[in-house]
Amino acid sequence: MSIFIFSQPYLNPITHCYSNIITLSCYPKGPLKLLCTTIRPTPLSQFKCFNRSKPCTIALKQLDCGNDFPAHTNELMIVDEFPMLYEFLLTHQYIVDTSVTKMLNAGPIKIGGICESRVLICVAKEVDKF
Predict the structure, then answer these.
(1) Torsion over CA: 87, 21, 115, 117 (sign)
(2) Which of 36, 69, 127, 129 is a good FRET partner for 49, with 20 to 30 A between their CA atoms?
């Protein structure tokens, strides 16, 4: 199964700060699912249209620095932490499919899905051992 990994703008409802978080196209199998949480993003502004047909998004929680498990906070993973996610994926036998990622990013149709400002980072595949 392929997992599409995105960067998505997010307005934190508590701090009222914007950040680009890492989201997924679907719930994965294997160790990556331990990092997943479901969020209900709020519209980024009153002028932005929001897709109500899919009100929830699968986001990743921050990794505990130097470990392979979620941090003890409910902080969401931001794009600056992608190198840690990449290491996590490689360590746990996921394959980052660079050829599919390049094809999708180079094509005229941008894969974003529920949010027009969501950007594809990469496509990962789970090894069938799970």
Answers:
(1) negative
(2) 36
Residue with the two structure tokens 């996590």: 88
Contact criterion met (CB below 8 Å) for 20 and 7? yes
Q: What is the DSSP track for 15-79?
A: T--EEEEEEESSPPSGGGGGGEEEE-PPPSSTTS---TTS--EEEEBPBPTTSSSB-SS-PBPBG
Which amino acid belongs to residue 60?
A: L
